Structures are given as structure tokens and as C-alpha cells.
Amino acid sequence: MSEPDVLVVGAGAAGIAAARAVAAAGRSVLVLEARDRVGGRVVTDHRLGLPFERGANWLHNAEDNPLVKLAAEAGIRLVDSDRLRRERTHVGGRLAEAAERAAYDAAWDAFEAAVAAPREGPDPSVAAVVPRGGAWDATVAAWQGDIIAAAPLDRVSLQDFTATALNGGNMLAEQGFGTLLAGLAAGLPIRLASPVARLGWGGAQAVAEGGFGTVRARAVVVTLPTPLLVSDTLRFDPPLPAAVRQAAADLPLGQVVKVGFRGTAALGLADFTSIDRQVAPGEALVAMNARPFGRDLLACHVGGDAAAALERAGDAALEDFMRAEVATRFGALAAAALHPNPIVTDWLRDPWARGVYSYARPGRAAARGVLAAPLAGGRLCLAGEACHARLAGTVGGAWRSGEAAAQAALAALR
Ligand SMILES: Cc1cc2nc3c(=O)[nH]c(=O)nc-3n(C[C@H](O)[C@H](O)[C@H](O)COP(=O)(O)OP(=O)(O)OC[C@H]3O[C@@H](n4cnc5c(N)ncnc54)[C@H](O)[C@@H]3O)c2cc1C
């Protein structure tokens, strides 16, 4: 079909949600996807012989997450990650003692209180308002910044950080989050390996061009990650309004790298163990998740600038770095027992992502609303995780944003 009512660019969560909404309204839809698979930043990789999430892992904000209900309908089993998780914190090579754990908990509480404190005036960075100098402050900041926001807190808007804070339950999909999304995309008219190179949107019809040929549609939903909106990978004609380009630039994607190992028996860990360690200011924090669903898997995450530098250094450097972290916590023998050839992710290098999820620069929290506003009376709608003011950075936010964009595009058809 080369003349659908609505064209959707991108078959990640936002694009799948948008396409389903258009189809449910009885209108014709076509999705053009650059990669040779659906799911975008949600992909379950089976190369280790078990499901490993290269991208999104948790269904955050479970009470307000549309994927929870869809998973149940699709027969995907969800478990409550918060209830099953066992936490383990190391101080160097030993476990934190009770007094240290209490101090760590207090540092988390102090951080939460600092970001939640009422404040007047301009929107500072998160780093400007949170405690520092305490024994555990750098560890909490590394979690909240490098891992959760995927960027150091001095680059992150306080207003956006609090508006988009993860709260509520966190669920895990037994068959895989990527498996869930692929199932939700089944049956939709999606053309894979079809990157859109040019999108004309000035006239009565949108015109998409690329190696696939030409597709014309009455309205279009574009779900590109923000770095691609400002990089001209897809050339908009006319260019996107300056305010929209600025909004995309103000919502960059942060960095997280994951390394997934098999060979975890020597670690002696219980199922669903979450492991961290105390870090000094500026030191990279590696967060580890062991044995989800009883599987022989250790997923190691590092975020922020360290993740970007390690990804640039290459897969071998990343594997060595993670093995060294495992050795620090569990000893050299346990590190050596991890199997060779782990899965190493590369979201920064990935030409169709260029990062993991969006954060807002200080003073720029309003950018999400600018990005989400329909253009040309709804004939061009941007969608994706960066467009959601509350659930930004998550699959649930991308899904809701895709649904909202589809409604705006459908309204433009009337
Ligand atoms: C390592 C990592 C961990 C994460 N952890 C979590 C988590 O635990 N929980 C959570 O909720 N979220 C998590 N996220 C974030 C979540 O994955 C994203 O917020 C969400 O998947 C974004 O969906 P989207 O549809 O907005 O964008 P995408 O998934 O990026 O979809 C955009 C699609 O557009 C395609 N595309 C790009 N350019 C073109 C073009 N020119 N033509 C055609 N198609 C194009 C891309 O290939 C892609 O498929 C994580 C992400 C990463 C990478």
C-alpha cells in the first residue's frame, strides 16, 4: 500500500501503538521501519540461549502502564520485580555492614527529600540541589544520574527529573519485553529495512521517500529518537520549525551499556539479586542483576559518560571492565568462570537510536510539550518516549505518546 491514510515512521513502541490506534479507528496505516526488526529500543536477544533484554527491561510505573494489560491479554507472564528483588551492596570486596546499609538508605531518603523540596525560580540541574560529600552521596547520585537518567545529574533538569520520576511498581516479562512488543506488532502492515530519507510535509499530502520508493499519506506520525530529529538522517521538507528542533536538542538521549554473561554459578547468588557497590565521586557505578527467573544470567549496566567512553573503546574493553567489577565484588575465580562471548550492547553506535532514553537539559523541561504538539493541524505528529511529560524515558510513555499522536493524526483526516 503506497497511499495509506496515516503513515507511521518507526516501529518501536510509539510507532506500534500509533499504528494499532489508526487500524482500530478503521483507517488505513502503513509503518516504515529502518531496521530489519520491530521494537526499536525494546528487543529481546536469545543469542545466549535465554532471553536477554538489550534495551528496556522493566515495565515501570506498573499501575499507569498500558503494556501491563496488553501483556496479560497476550499471555506474557509478568512478575513483580520489586517484591522478588534481593538487594546486595558491596563496599570494595565485602558486603556492606548494617550501619553502612542504614547510612545508604538515609542517603537515598536525603536525595529524595532534596529533589522534592518546593522551589521557586529557574529550573536548576539536579546536581545543584542534592546532598554531596557524604559517604554514600556519590553512589546515590550515580544511580539516579548515570543509571536512571542515563546522564550525570549536572546535565539534567530538576523539574523534568521530578516530573518524570519512576514511581509505582516495576514488572518483568518472563518471555521478554521485546517478545511482548513483537507480538503487539504482529499483523500490522510494517515494511522493515525501509528507512525514510526524506519527508515532505508542506502540502495536502505527506510524501515519504527512501530506498523503498515513495509513500503518500494524508497524515504522518514520526517516532524517531531525538538525536535523529536533529541530525537530518531523515530530511524534513520543509525543515521542522526551529522551536521543535531546539526541543529535540534539549532532550538528548543518555547512555547506558549492558553486558550479559552466562556462567553465574560461581557467584553463589539467589534469583533476582540486584548488586551494587559504594563508589567515590566520579567513579563509574556498575549495577548488576543476577539470575532473573532463575536463569543463568548476569546483566551488568553502566551509564552516563563512562558508558559512552567504554562503548567507544569497544566490546572487548567493556567485557574486561565488567569482569574486573565482578572480580572486585566476587573474586577473580568467579569473574573467570563467566562464559566468554557475552552480549555487549551498543546503543550509542546504533544509527537508529544514538543513545538510550531522553533527559531534559536544565531549564528545558517544557521541551517535551513542544515536541509533542501536532504540526500542520495534525498532519505531522511527532511521537516517542521524549514526547511524554510524565512517563518520558519509558516504553509506557512511548506507547501513550504514540496513541495520542495517532488520535491527532486521525482528527486531521476528518
Ligand atoms: C539500554 C536501555 C534500557 C532501557 N530500560 C528501560 C526499562 O527498563 N523500562 C522502560 O520502560 N524503558 C526502558 N528503556 C527506554 C525504552 O526502551 C524507550 O523509552 C522506548 O522503547 C522508546 O520507544 P520509541 O518508540 O519512542 O522509540 P524507538 O524504540 O527508538 O523507536 C523508533 C523507531 O524508529 C526507527 N527509525 C529511526 N529512524 C528511522 C527512519 N529514518 N525511517 C524509519 N524508521 C526509523 C528505529 O529503528 C526505531 O525502531 C531503555 C532503553 C535502553 C536503550
Automatic annotation (TrEMBL):
What pathway does the UniProt record associate with this protein? Plant hormone metabolism; auxin biosynthesis
Q: Does the keyword Membrane apply?
A: no
The catalytic activity, as recorded, is:
L-tryptophan + O2 = indole-3-acetamide + CO2 + H2O
Name of a matching Pfam family: Amino_oxidase
Domain (Amine oxidase): give its ranges.
14-112, 167-409
Q: Give the top-rank taxon of the lineage listed in the UniProt record for this protein.
A: Bacteria
Enzyme class (EC, first level): oxidoreductase
Query: Which EC number(s) does the record attach to this protein?
Result: 1.13.12.3
Could you tell me which Gene3D superfamilies the record lists for this protein? FAD/NAD(P)-binding domain
Keyword list (alphabetical) reads: Auxin biosynthesis
Family recorded in the similarity comment: Belongs to the tryptophan 2-monooxygenase family.
What name does the UniProt record give this protein? Tryptophan 2-monooxygenase
